[in-house]
Each structure stands twice: as structure tokens, then as C-alpha cells.
Amino acid sequence: MICPSLLCALALSQSGTPPIFLRGETILFQGDSITDGNRGRSEDPNHILGHGYVFSIAAKYGEHFPGLGLKFVNRGISGNTVADLTGRWDADAMAVKPDVLSVLIGINDLHQAQGKTLDIQKIERRYDELLARSRAANPKLKLILGQPFVLKVGMVAKDAAWWTAAVAQVGSVVDRLASKYNAPVVRFQEAFSKALERAAAEHWIWDGIHPTTSGHQLMADAWIQAYNDFYISPLEDPARNSAIDPVVNFERDSYNWLHRHADVLDAQKKGNPDVALIGDSITHFWGGEPKSSQSNGPTSWKATFQGVKALNLGYGWDRTQNVLWRLQHGEFQGLKPKSVVLNIGTNNLVGDETARTNTPEEVAAGIRAIVRVLKERSPESKIFVMAVFPRGFDKGNELDLRITQLNEILAKTLEGVTFLDIGPKLRRPDGSISSEILSDGTHPTDKGYAIWGEALREVGVVPRTSLPRT
């Protein structure tokens, strides 16, 4: 599976649609009349993609992710066989230079073979040559292959047994080629057969071969699902990993989450900070602007950030998905701080009625998603990702072990940032935690925050000697 590193991995669109394409990708659809969809042959955007499943896919992702600059190209031609594709592959495939290539072909090969011997080996050989050429031209090309399909209606009903067997043969060819080229298969026949449980064949395919409007939407849904299941890692899919699915924080806490969001947006208007700190209650309750009703480290905050304009974007009880929501809704917009300090993830490892417990792998994906957005917004900022602080007074408790696992994953997978682990400095020599450092085994005291502040000085987030700003 491929895990996309993209701003679109920041998660769902406003409507809740997960992204599946990378920024700037060209997605090419090749095939026969089913793909053609009576498309226009000019550059008229109203007709260029036809009125079939290609149109549905392009419309969905073009509307939900307009900022990704996706390009959808339809080169299906009615009546085409695999041999016909061979004849126009240079102009209609190689020249397009796609990042994603979708092929649905074979039904006309079967139509021409009625009453004759079906040369399935020739079909497979020609199909194989096309895919080999495309993959050789672009080793990173993402292929997706559709199996042909029929339903027992119209012309197919007259010789249903032959059509069913022949389609299965071509479907096996698609399976073998998909395995050879490490590509997903869109099992259209399975999708249409299952759809018969909901409506008669004529509702989906009017003549046994060509889909109706409903049938084309069914195809679009099946195509998207197959592509998503194969190319998008569950860790990078907001529908499967709640740690990267932006949501408001519904936790009941000592403050109003939405009011703090409004305060942060107001604070951002006061000018660009030198340092932006993003996180949960550990960051929130350190101090600084916007002011909080609770401050556990006022002395260390002043000592650390004296002479430095620091903006505190910490929220009590926040998880990675809450930070992503905040980033989607105005926070860190237009800011260009010299340094960004991110300290998030500990609450993801503790579930409740508002959010499930995430695995360390899921939390790491959430942190990486946040980092990608920060880099996108302010490429010149230096980003410091804090290792999640230890939890619990005794070393080796279950939660502490999962934190250790998360930090190990972050150390190996984060790129282009400074990973800062002060866990050992927060512990006693025997690994236990003193309440003088973490008051409840989680939240730092002023003394604990001073340790964090000193670590930030050591890596240059703040100067060792700060002078008041003028």
C-alpha cells in the first residue's frame, strides 16, 4: 500500500470525503464505450469526460478537493478492443503521462468472438504489453484494472451462459495482470451481481452491457473503493484512522473549547509570533497568550519566553484529530514563526465516550499529518516535535509502554523536523516520576515546565538570554 504524504492527507473534505489522490496528479481512464460515455472530442469541459463513471469520479474529487489541482482525462473510445488500444497507446496513453492509469477493456473482444474460438491468450498478451510499456515509462505509475461485466438482459440474455463464461475468462486475465503489476482490481461483475438484490437488471444495465445512470454510479463507487483499499494505507485513511479525521473536541473540561478557538484566532491577528506552541493541556496550561484560567507554569513560562513573542495553541484534552480540525478552521493561517513546537498525542492513547483509543501507529500518522500541514503553511519555520511525555508515577505501566512505542515510531518516521525527547529528564534515576515534576503523573508543575524550557533553549527555540521585545 502507498501512504500519501500530502496536504490532502490532512483529512476529510468539508463533506466528509476522504482524499485518495495526490496533489497535481493526472488520472487517465482508458477503455471502450463504457468508459467513453459519449464524451466530447473537444476541450469543452462540459462534455470532455462523458456522462459515465469517469464523470462521477472526477466530479466528486474535483468538487471536494479543488485545491489539489487534479487532472482527469478520459480516452475511452466506443467499440475498442485490446488490439485497438495497442494501435493508439502512444497518443492516448503514453503522451498523457498519467500518474494513475485505469483500464477497462475486453467486452468488445468478446462481442467479436461470438460464434468463434476465443483467443484469450492473445488478449492477455496484448494487454500485458500495454501495461508493461506504461510501467516502464513510469515505474511509479499506479494502475487500476477493471473486470468486464454483463447482466442477463437485452442482447446478453439471448446467450447468457456463453457471455457469463467468456466474461469470467477475461476477468481471470485481469486478475493475473493485476497480480503481475501489483495493482488493484475493480470487480465490476461482483458489484452488479450484488446490485440485483436491490433492483432488477434493467435498472443497472439497459442492454446487458452498457450501464444506466445508476449503473455508472455503482461503477464509480466500486472503482473508488478498490482504489482506496489498495493504495491508501488504513493509517492514512481518515475513514479508518480517527487520529487523522478532523473533529471538534467534545470533551467536557475546565474551559470552553470553542471559546478558546475564538481567542486563538483573535490572538493571531496581533502579529506573527517568534514561537508557536501547539498541543494539548500540557501546552495549554503552561501559560502565555491567549491567557487561560489555569496556569501551572507561570514562572518557567516567563523565564523561558521573556523577550520572545510566543503564541500558545494548546487546548486541554486535545487529540491529533482536534488539532487537524483547528488547522482546517483558521489556526496557524498566515503565521510564519521562526519555530513551531508540537506536543500532542498523549490523549489519543486514552479513549472515552467522545473518541476511541488509538494505536501508537495511528497516533504517529496523526502527528505526521499535522507536521505536513505546518510545513505547507510555513515552509521556513523550524518544527520541533516533542516526544510524548511519560505518564504515571511508576515506569513501565501499560500506558507508559504505549507512549514508549509511539515515541519509537516517531523517531523513525518523522522527516524534516527536530524530534526532542525530554522523557529521561522528567524521570528519577530509577525511571519513576516525582509529583514535584508531573503533579498528577501527566501534567508538569512549574519545575517540570522549567525542564521543558531548558530543553527548548538547548535546541535554539529560545535564546539562552532573552531581552524584552520593543
Commentary on this structure:
The protein has 17 helices and ten strands. The chain is of the alpha/beta class and 470 residues long. α3 packs parallel to α5. The radius of gyration is 28 Å and the shape is elongated. The N terminus and C terminus are likely disordered.
Rg of Cα set? 28 Å
Order of helices and strands: EHHEHEHHEHEHHHHEHHEHEHEHEHH
**Envelope shape:** elongated
What's the average pLDDT? 93
As residue ranges, the low-confidence spans are 1-15, 466-470
Walk me through the topology:
Elements: E1 26-31, H1 33-36, H2 53-64, E2 71-74, H3 82-92, E3 100-104, H4 107-113, H5 120-137, E4 142-146, H6 160-180, E5 185-186, H7 188-195, H8 201-204, H9 213-231, H10 257-268, E6 275-279, H11 281-284, H12 298-305, E7 310-314, H13 320-328, E8 339-343, H14 360-377, E9 382-386, H15 398-413, E10 418-420, H16 423-426, H17 446-458
Parallel strand pairs: 1-2, 1-3, 3-4, 4-5, 6-7, 6-8, 8-9, 9-10
Helix pairs in contact: 2-9, 3-5, 5-6, 7-9, 12-17, 13-14, 14-15
Summarize the structure.
The protein is an alpha/beta fold. Helices cover 40% and strands 10% of the residues.
Please name the defining characteristics of this protein.
5-stranded parallel sheet, elongated, 17 helices, 470 residues, alpha/beta
